[in-house]
Structures are given as C-alpha cells and as structure tokens.
UniProtKB/TrEMBL annotation:
GO terms for molecular function: undecaprenyl-phosphate 4-deoxy-4-formamido-L-arabinose transferase activity. This is Glycosyltransferase family 2 protein. One of its GO terms (cellular component) is plasma membrane. Coiled coil: none annotated. The keyword Thylakoid does not apply. Residues 4-167 form the Glycosyltransferase 2-like domain. The keyword Cell membrane applies. The chain crosses the membrane at residues 235-256, 276-297. It comes from the Bacteria. One of its GO terms (biological process) is lipopolysaccharide biosynthetic process. The lineage of its organism: Bacteria, Pseudomonadati, Bacteroidota, Sphingobacteriia, Sphingobacteriales. CDD domains: DPM1_like_bac. Keywords: Cell membrane, Glycosyltransferase, Lipopolysaccharide biosynthesis, Membrane, Transferase, Transmembrane, Transmembrane helix.
Length: 316
C-alpha cells in the first residue's frame, strides 16, 4: 500500500463526508493505493455513526473508536500503529488542511529522501491570539531542538516514512513536537512544504488557552528527556558532584584557615560559628541529594514506562 492517511477527530461530524470524498478524489486521480484511518477520539456528536456509514460506502476507510477522549496525541499514536502504507500522512479532520497537498508530500518521501515532511501554513487563517504565541513557540522549539528549517512544528498536515511512525511514541501533548521526536529517534532528513490553510469550516477549535502552558511544559520535558532521558545520572549527578565539591572545598578552606590561625597563635572562632560553614553544609547535603535523585531516575529510566493507556472500543 502506498499511503495511509491518519485523521484524528473529535466532534467533527459535519466535516467527515466532505473530507473523505476529497481525499478519495486526490488518491484516485494519482492512482495511489491507500487507506483513510479515521480515529474517533471519543466524540460526543454523531462522528462515529458517520464513520460507520462512510465505511460501508468506501472499503478504503478504517475506523477506530476510543472509549473516551484521550487527546490528539493518543489518536495519532493509535493511527500510526494501525497504518499499513509506505508513507503515512496525518491531517486534521476540520478541512483546514488540504488533501491536494498529498501528491507532493508523498513525492518528497518516496523520491526525494525525506523521512518527515512538515506542512507550513505560511498564510494562516487563525486569530492573532493563536498565531502570535505559536510564533514564539516555534522559535523556542527551533532553538531547543536544533531543527532550524521548520517554521511550523505543530501543523497537523505532515508526511512520514513508515519507519518513523513505527519507531516513535506520541503521548501527552507531544503531537506538537513530532519532528523533534523523529529527530531524536535518528530520522534526520526533515523537510518543510508550504501548504494551503483554510479557516475552520464547521465546529470550533478543540484546544483552549491551556494549550500554551501544556505545550511549554512539554517542550521542556521533551528537551530534558531527549538530552538526559537515557542517562538522568549525567544531569543530576553532574550538578550533585559540583555542589558536593563546592562544599568540600569550603570545608577544606575553613580547616586550613583554623590551622593557620592556631599556628600563628591568633584568636579564632569555632569553625561551626562561621557563616561559610553553613554554606558548605548546604552544598554537601544538596550535592548528596541531587546525586541520589539521579540514581533513582536512572533506575526508573531502565524500566520502560507505558505512557499511552487508552482503550479502543471498536475497530472497523
Ligand atoms: N482532536 C482530537 N482530539 C482532541 C482534540 C482535537 O482528535 O482531543 C482533533 C480535531 O478533531 C482535529 C485536530 O485534532 O481534527 C486538530 O484540532 P483543532 O482543529 O481543534 O485544532 P486547531 O486547528 O485549532 O489547532
Ligand atoms: Mg483546526
């Protein structure tokens, strides 16, 4: 199979017939063999009924229904697990992304060496309250991830070589940082494609202002996990050893100072009465604690943690 299109959807009943018909047209015009994986992330409207109806008319449609709303990342992850195509394309369900981009996305992966192609909504039809923070996020992500050629990490329209989606785990709010996950996993040919973007046709956005705080925390955690996830001791241990050494050096100084003043016969305060003594005590204790934290983190990181814990209600 050439292409799997993975569509996460949450309360998108109005868009689905139009979206699948449009994808269908593009695929047939290009003679692609394909499937459309519609992942219903616990919709409360008639979305799943519509998926079932569409499936009856079109055997290329695969439907997966979650028991409840687990979030876009979980929906993408389950779609990635199910995908059979050589190239996997993700697309939002709300008709903001254009299926007309599929042939070029496919070509970049199949013929031009890309592991991942990320869409860039250069002309974006969203309110300024959303586009401005997004610009800041993208700048921070570029800086922290060392992927300098992407303008729009969170664009829902992306294409992947099959190996990429089978080797990354998308959880929490990580759907915003899939290119970063891919890069950490070793897929370095990351390209960008300017894509059409439309205003939302039906329904409303599913993400509120909390998205920015969650997104920022995920950015920090992805940075630390990427850098130190496999060896947390390298992070905590280094800080711990530095702190411990600082305390040790101060203590040595205090002892030396005391010995010198005894030798010189001058009056001298007790070591424990010196302000520096408390600093050295704090530094030594903090150092030991950081070292132990690193040790515990190291133990935990050796046991893989299953972060995705979702239940599939039906799979058609
Ligand atoms: N979505 C989802 N689960 C959620 C929230 C959103 O599967 O909990 C889907 C949603 O149906 C859409 C895509 O993720 O297909 C992007 O969501 P939305 O259009 O609301 O985001 P925006 O375009 O405002 O960033
Ligand atoms: Mg949208």
């Amino acid at each position: 199979m050439d292409i799997s299109v993975v569509v996460p959807l949450y309360n998108e009943e109005e868009s689905l017939p139009e979206l699948t018909a449009w994808i269908d047209r593009v695929m047939k015009a290009q003679n692609f063999s394909y499937e459309i994986i519609l992942v219903d992330d616990g919709s409360k409207d008639r979305s799943w009924k519509i998926v079932e109806e569409l499936k009856l008319q079109n055997p290329a449609i695969v439907g997966i229904k979650f028991r409840r709303n687990y979030g876009k990342s979980a929906a993408l992850n389950v779609g990635f697990d199910a995908a059979k195509g050589d190239v996997v394309i993700t697309m939002d369900a709300d008709l903001q992304d254009s299926p007309d981009e599929i042939p070029e996305l496919y070509d970049r992966i199949a013929n031009r060496g890309a592991d991942l192609v990320s869409g860039w909504k250069q002309k974006r039809y969203d309110p300024l309250t959303k586009t401005l923070p997004t610009k800041l996020f993208n700048a921070a992500t570029r800086y922290m991830s060392d992927i300098h050629n992407l303008h729009d990490f969170n664009c829902g329209l992306k294409a992947y070589r099959k190996d990429v989606v089978k080797n990354i785990e998308v959880y929490g709010e990580m759907h915003r940082y899939i290119p970063v996950l891919a890069k950490w996993a070793g897929f370095t040919n990351i390209q960008e494609q300017v894509v059409q973007h439309y205003p939302r046709k039906y329904g409303t956005t599913k993400f509120g202002a909390g998205r920015f705080i969650k997104g920022f925390l995920d950015l920090l955690s992805i940075f630390f996990v990427g850098k130190f996830g496999k060896r947390p001791m390298h992070f905590f241990g280094t800080l711990g050893v530095l702190s411990f050494l600082t305390g040790f050096v101060i203590t040595c100084y205090l002892i030396f100072d005391k010995l010198m003043s005894i030798a010189a016969g001058t009056a001298y305060r007790n070591i424990t009465e010196q302000p520096l003594f408390f600093l050295s005590l704090v530094a030594i204790l903090l150092g030991s604690q950081l070292f132990l934290t690193g040790f515990i983190a190291e133990l935990i990181s050796r046991n893989s943690v299953d972060r995705n814990n979702y239940q599939i209600e039906s799979h058609i």
